[in-house]
Each structure stands twice: as C-alpha cells, then as structure tokens.
Amino acid sequence: MTPSTENRPQMSVEDFEELERHASETVRLEFINGRVQAKPVTDGNHDQIIAWLQRLCMQHRPELWLYGDRGMKVERYRRGRARPDGVLAPFGFPAGHGDWSEAAGVLMAVEVTSHDSDTHQRDRVEKPDAHAAAGIPVYLLIDRDDRSVVVFNQPEDGRYRHEEKLPFGAPVKLPEPVSITLDTEPLKEFAD
Are 142 and 87 a contacting pair, CB within 8 Å? Predict the structure, then answer.
C-alpha cells in the first residue's frame, strides 16, 4: 500500500532550511505539516502590536525578552520550522543557536494575524498544534480580524488542552509560566 501524497512532506527539513537560507529578505518562509508556506511581510500596525507586547513583557518580567521572528523547531520530533512573530524566553535564549532554536526554555509563542487568505489555516489551526507539539507552554494569538486575543495553554499530545478567547479591551491573564496580565485596550487602536 502506498502512503497518500497528502501525508508526505514536500521536501526534507534540510532542503527547506537550504531554500529558506537563500530566500529573498522580502519573504519569510515556514515549514509546517510538511509544506512550505510564505508568511506575509508585516505592516506597521502589526509591528506596533509586537512592540506593545514587548514593552509589557519587559515591565512585568525583566528577566525575559520577546524575540521577534526567531526561527523555531516545532511539531513532533522538531520536523517543522516556524518564525513566530514573537517568542518569550529568558534573555540570551538564542545565543549560539544558529538559525533555528529548540523550544526548550520558551515560555510563549506569539502570532498576530495578517490580512491575507492563509491566516486562518496558518495562525488559528496549524500554529497552535505545531507549538503545542514542541511543548511551548503558552501560545498567544492576537487576532486583528475579529478583534480578539486567544490564549492557548496546557500542551498535551500535540494540542493545547485549554483555549480562552477574549475581546480587545478585556484584561487577559497569561497563565504560568508567563504569569502576566495584559490590558488589551490599546489593541483596539491597532486592529486594522
């Protein structure tokens, strides 16, 4: 019996890393579920949301840093490659890692939705599963389309067991090991 082609990766992880290394700076590539995906370049509001979150993390947890666009080994057996919009980890985390870091030590991965046709599948479906499978304790999705913040936590067997969705403006409690409460009122200004 021949395995279905939809379960076979488009290429090896090593071939993807070579492709990504030579890609234009105007495109960010990821390798999730065995497929190469182009992640759109961010806009100004997207960047401002990450800056807002970075400032809050520094104020509440100065021993940590929100690293932007850090290459991460995700999925089971670290066979996927993702570039979350933010990775919260101890300051100095990526030193010596090269292009792709293991998930050990990462407290939270962050994505801010982009206004493109793939954002639903990529940010709301595939990324939570990829980060859960890598054992990242918290996945924070800032969803500009429906003006909400979604907190995923309790990774187990490749999925997050708990998910909480709150509207922009509501206080959002990021669970342990992050342990920060976000005042999301400023997100209303940057939703578009």
Answer: no
Q: Which CATH class is domain 43-190?
A: alpha beta
Q: Could you tell me the residue ranges of all domains in the chain?
A: 43-190
- Distance, in Å, from the CA atom of 157 to the CA atom of 176, rounded to the nearest integer, reads 19
Give the start-end residues of each E strand in 1-134: 28-32, 35-39, 64-67, 72-74, 80-82, 86-90, 108-112
Identify the band that residue 47 occupies on the pLDDT scale cut at 50, 70 and 90: very high
- What's the mean pLDDT in 87-108? 95
Q: What is the pLDDT of residues 123-152, one digit of tens each?
A: 677 889 899 999 999 999 999 989 999 999
Per the CB < 8 A criterion, the answer to whether 105 and 89 are in contact is yes
Q: How far apart are CA 125 and CA 143, in angstroms?
A: 13
CB 56 within 8 A of CB 149: no
What are the residue ranges of helices labelled H in 27-178?
44-60, 119, 127-133
